[in-house]
Amino acid sequence: MKIIGLDVGSKTIGVAISDAFGWTAQGLTTLKWTEPNFDEELESIFKDLLEEHMIEKAVVGLPKNMNGSIGERGEASLKFADFLEEKFSIPTVLWDERLTTMAAEKVLIEADVSRKKRKKVIDKMAAVMILQGYLDSQS
């Protein structure tokens, strides 16, 4: 079963997918969007992604505050998960993503990736970390 992992931001969505065995996460792409527009274009993009990769489940990063409460960004992720479930009838898991973007940036800095290139891949890398965290918890 393939799973899609999503790091939902206000301007971009990092996308990762698992292998067919659900062991590893690979970065796929970063989508541009204008929150909170769940328009036909976004529906079409996700319909194509889910069909092309035969996705059976989604893991959406849930950015909680450090005290565990859910703030504005967390509410946006909840709405996005609802959108996926309602439009595509796909089971969705919310995954605590605290500090994943910071961890992704640290990995990219240690790999000596330039600031300009980091900006282009940070959301995709965060999606990989979200999905891999979920996959690791399932084994």
TrEMBL record:
InterPro entries: RNaseH-like_sf (IPR012337), YqgF (IPR005227), YqgF/RNaseH-like_dom (IPR006641), YqgF/RNaseH-like_dom_sf (IPR037027). It comes from the Bacteria. GO terms for cellular component: cytosol. It is an enzyme of class 3 (hydrolase). One of its GO terms (biological process) is rRNA 5'-end processing. Keywords: Cytoplasm, Hydrolase, Nuclease, Ribosome biogenesis. GO terms for molecular function: hydrolase activity, acting on ester bonds; nuclease activity. Its main location: cytoplasm. Gene3D superfamilies: YqgF/RNase H-like domain. It is found in: Cytoplasm. Residues 1-104 form the YqgF/RNase H-like domain. Pfam families: RuvX (PF03652). Its EC number is 3.1.-.-. HAMAP family: Nuclease_YqgF. PANTHER family: POLYNUCLEOTIDYL TRANSFERASE, RIBONUCLEASE H-LIKE SUPERFAMILY PROTEIN (PTHR33317). Could be a nuclease involved in processing of the 5'-end of pre-16S rRNA. Belongs to the YqgF HJR family. This is Putative pre-16S rRNA nuclease. It comes from Saliterribacillus persicus.
